[in-house]
Model the fold of this input.
Amino acid sequence: MSRERMLGMAVVLGLAAGGVPYAAAQDNAPPVIDNVWWTSSGGCGAGATIFDPNVECAEELQQLTLCVEVTDADLADPDTQEVMRVAVTSTWVPFVFNNIRYGPEPPSVTTDDPDFGYIANTVVDVDTRRAAITFRVPHFNGVNQARLRGLVRYDVFWSVLVEVTDSTAEDPRADGQAVIVDDVLDMCAVQNTVLRPGNPPPFADAGPDQSVEVGSAVTLDGSRTFDGSNVGIDAGDSNVFERDFLQYTWEWISGPVRVDPVDDNDGNSATVKVTLDRVGTYVYRLLVSDGVNPVPSSDSVTINVVSLVPENRAPRAVIAGPANTVVVGSIIQLNGTGSTDPDGDQLTFRWQQTNELGGQLSPDEVKQSFQALKGVTSPIVTWQATTTGTFHFRLLVTDPGGLSDTQLTSVEVVESAATAKTAGDVAAESAGATPETTSASDTGSTPATPKGCGGGLLPLAVLPCLLWLIRGRLR
Done:
C-alpha cells in the first residue's frame, strides 16, 4: 500500500473518531432538543417547582415557565458565531363529545402579552444550553360543561409546539428558515375559583296569601322563587351543570292545629299541599337553599280558613287620560288608579295599544303607529307621542280570583298647539254638532243678531208707516 493511500485512510478514521462536533462544524449540523419541562416557580434552575401537565392543570392567570434544553455541535467552534432561538406556538383545542362542542370560547391572545400564543426570538443561553419561556395563563369566561360532567379534567386545553432554529434571523419564520420540531406538549387550565363572580343568594317566594273554605285542599306554591345564578337556564336542560340546584323545605309555623305539608314527589318540591279542616289562620314558611350560601332564604304565606268564602265579584276598569288633544312630542299618562274591586281585592294591571276596534295591531299598523309604553303592568302607563294621529289603548284589570274587566280609550295627537282641540270641541264633534260662533266675552266683538222666526220681516212691517207720513207732508 502506497504512502498516499495510507495517509488518506488515516484522515477518514480521524474524521470518524472526531464524532459529531467536528462533522457539525463542517456541515452546519442543526440543533437538537434534549429536554423540555414545565415549572411553576423558580425558573429552570435546580430549585424550581416542577409542573407536570400530564397530571396537573393550571389556573387562570397562573404564571408558568417552559424550559427547553438544546445542543448544537456548531457551537463547539467559536468561529461559527451561531445563535440558537426557540419559538413556541400554542393552539386552543376544543373538546367535542358526541358531536357536541363543550367549553368556553378560546381567550384572545397577542404577542404583546406573555400569554399563550406565538413567541419568537427567545435565545438559548450558551453556557446552560437552556431557554426559559414564561407564560401567563389567560383569563377565559365560563367553565367546560364536559368537566362538570366528569368527562374531562380541564376547562380549556392547549396544544403547545416547541421549535428550535440556529437561523441568524430574529424571527426564523420570517425568512423561511427550517426549524426543528419537538414532540407536541399538552397544557390544560381550569377556572380560577377566586376569579369566579359571587353566587347571589336565592329569593324565596311562598306565594300569595289565600282565603279558603274549611276542608279545602290548599296548594302552597313556591315556584316563583328566584335565583340569579339560574337566570336564562332551563331547569330541565340536562346539558347545563353550572347552576344552582335549589332545596325547598316547607314547614308549619302556626295555626289552630298542626297540619304539615305533603310532598307528592321526592321531598324537594317547590309545590306542596295541605288539607285544612278547622277554621282559623295558618302560617307556613318556605326555606330555600342553593347549596352555596350558608343561610337559606325564607318567606311565609298566610292561609285564612273560613266557614264560607263569599262569592268573588268582578272588578271595574277605569281610565283617566288627557281630555284635550295633545301636541306631538308630549309625554302622556293614562291613569288606571280609579279602577275598583267590590271585594277589595288587589288588582293586576295590563296596558296594551290596540286598533280602533280594540283588537291587536296588524303588522302594518305596528310599523305606522306603534307607541312604546312604559309601565304596562302598573296602574299608570306613560308614553311619548312620536307622531300625529289617533291612538287607541286598552286597560285590563284582573282580581286574584281571575275575574277581569277592560276599558278602552283613545288619544288624538296633533302637529301644533294651534290645531289642538279643547274638551268642548271634542265633545261637540262626538255629538255630531257644529260649534257656534264664540261669545262677545270670549272675543271682544259685537254679538251677532239672534236668529228667530220674525226677525227677518221687521223692515217690511215698518215700511207702510213711513210711506203714510211722507204722503201727509206732500199735501
